Amino acid sequence: MSFFQKALASIGIGSAKVDTVLHQHILSHGNLVEGEIVIKGGNVAQTIDNIYLRLHATYEKESNDRTYTESCVIDSFLVGESLEIGANEQKTIPFSFPLSIYTPFTLGKTKVWISTGLDIKNAIDPSDQDYVEVQPNALVNKLLSAVSELGFQMKQVECKESSYKRNGIPFVQELEYVPVSGSFYGKLDEIELSFLTVDDKLIELVVQVDKKARGLGGLFAEALDLDERFINVTIKDEEKNIIKQQLFNMVQTYS
């Protein structure tokens, strides 16, 4: 192994490369993320100190009257340590991990991806990233169907920075709905569903009910945000058949 080859590997030329192959790119909460990490040796043998996977998502952040897109790490996993990879050698490492309950849906502008990294001393660390689609699972779809059946239509979806941090996650995903028919048409401006945690057996969210302003008092209340009500809601899988009635009763109480 020549000094020249080592020097080239240290700047990424002829160094080891990594490629992550996911078994499935469409996921829902309650699923395992499964795949293989393929490491291909370069022109020289190298020692890999750590192999890690990180789950990322984008969110919107406001600063100085500007809105811009940020990203954060939702979860991270150490897959392997102290691995020797010879010149031109190939090694495959299988992995699986549960999709984090804090992962947002890839609705609107939200993007979710998995990055793979190799820590190699005295070299540029090889990396790879793979985008995934995160869809609502059966329990969430039951909730969203109930919202639609009550006469609400989705207006927009955003992952927004929040002062309320769950497990260090700096954003909350909000699904905004406006009434277009049914009992709440003309009574409410909108409702927002802010998802805190999602699994296939349980959902935790905050429902914001925004009443429609009526008269001068209503206008003052709207200006001071006094017309908004925030309700903490937990929905369990065994309650899925009564979600619509529960949602109606709750919104009716605060509208």
What is this structure, in a nutshell?
The protein is of the alpha+beta class. Helix content is 16%, strand content 54%. The protein has a 5-stranded mixed sheet with strand order 2-8-7-4-5, with no helix packed on it.
Describe the structure.
The chain has 255 residues and is an alpha+beta fold. The protein is built from 4 helices and 13 strands. The protein has helices at 3-10, 138-149, 215-223, 243-254, and strands at residues 17-22, 26-27, 32-40, 46-63, 66-85, 90-98, 112-120, 127-134, 152-166, 169-179, 188-198, 202-211, 228-236. The strands form 3 sheets. A 5-stranded mixed β-sheet has the order 2-8-7-4-5, with no helix packed on it. A 5-stranded antiparallel β-sheet has the order 9-10-11-12-13, covered by helices on one side. Strands 1-3-6 form a 3-stranded antiparallel β-sheet, with no helix packed on it. Pfam families: Spo0M. This is Sporulation protein SpoOM.
Topology:
Layout (H helix, E strand, L loop, with lengths): L2 H8 L6 E6 L3 E2 L4 E9 L5 E18 L2 E20 L4 E9 L13 E9 L6 E8 L3 H12 L2 E15 L2 E11 L8 E11 L3 E10 L3 H9 L4 E9 L6 H12 L1
Parallel strand pairs: 2-8
Antiparallel strand pairs: 1-3, 3-6, 4-5, 4-7, 7-8, 9-10, 10-11, 11-12, 12-13
Helix pairs in contact: 2-4
InterPro entries: Spore_0_M (IPR009776)
Protein name: Sporulation protein SpoOM
